[in-house]
Design brief:
It contains 3 helices and 11 strands; from the N terminus they run E-E-E-H-E-E-E-E-E-H-E-E-H-E. It is α/β, with parallel strands linked by helices. The termini are far apart.
């Protein structure tokens, strides 16, 4: 299939998503290339990526060892990058479109916001160092073969979609611990670009939006009082309230 072909809207990537013992594995048929912002981040080759729920009060620092332990306990013997979250995997949701599959988990106990002028809202009062029980995690998988730069472009496309979705649904730009893993099939049909105007980019945007909204609906169904209205109302939270010095580059006219 060439980059210009339009696969069925409900096709998705050739991956499976399985939850066991608080661990969700997104498994590919072979070792795929992953670009990850979480634990052991960067570019990895692995046949799977994981999203792992940590317990309340989690304080482990040996995160590589911890994720290996959790994979073994869940019966997953394949290596791969892992994202951590306080959100239970029963709230995980998957969306598929074209050559893309997205797994999302969404929690907002530690929201982040970036005010654009005007009064700056107060930050939340929570001050301990324990990992928050929120986090928006995304695992994005595509059958397309992406070069390193294109994979980074797709990650940016996914984050943009996450931010747009959260702003519209909650007024927040994200949380203070969001993470993303983007995987592609090195043997697939190549995609040179992955921005919003491309097939793979547009499919990713739709999948991120729909999977994230569904996960938030599952997480807060019947518990709307747990969804903070402002950063100040949250148990944890971050407001970027500083300003930067702005100037024109040398030689600009």
């Amino acid at each position: 299939m060439s980059e210009g072909d339009d696969p069925p809207a409900d096709a998705g990537a050739a991956v499976t998503a399985t939850v066991r013992e608080g661990v969700c594995r997104v498994a590919a048929p072979t070792a795929w290339r992953w670009l990850v912002t979480g634990i052991r981040g960067g570019i990895r080759r692995a046949p799977a990526a994981y999203n792992v729920t940590v317990p309340e009060g989690f304080d482990r620092t040996d995160l590589d060892a911890y994720t290996r332990e959790r994979r073994r306990e869940a019966g997953f013997d394949t290596d791969g990058p892992a994202l951590l979250t306080g959100v239970a995997m029963r709230h995980a949701r998957v969306a598929v479109r074209g050559p893309v599959t997205v797994l999302a988990t969404g929690g907002l106990s530690n929201p982040a916001t970036l005010p654009l002028g005007g009064a700056v809202p107060p930050t939340a009062s929570g001050g301990d160092d324990r990992p928050p029980v929120g986090t928006v995690n995304l695992v994005v998988a595509t059958d397309r073969a992406l070069a390193a730069g294109t994979c980074a472009e797709l990650l940016a496309t996914a984050v943009e979609a996450k931010t747009a979705t959260l702003l519209d649904a909650t007024g927040f730009t994200g949380t203070s611990s969001d993470a993303v893993a983007v995987g592609c099939d090195p043997s697939g049909a190549p995609a040179e670009f992955a921005g919003s105007a491309t097939g793979v980019g547009a499919a990713t945007r739709a999948c991120v939006r729909d999977a994230l909204l569904a996960s938030l609906d599952a997480r807060y169904d019947g518990r709307g009082n747990e969804l903070p209205d402002t950063v100040a109302a949250a148990e944890h939270g971050v407001v970027t309230d500083g300003s930067a010095r702005v100037f024109a580059p040398d030689g600009a006219e």
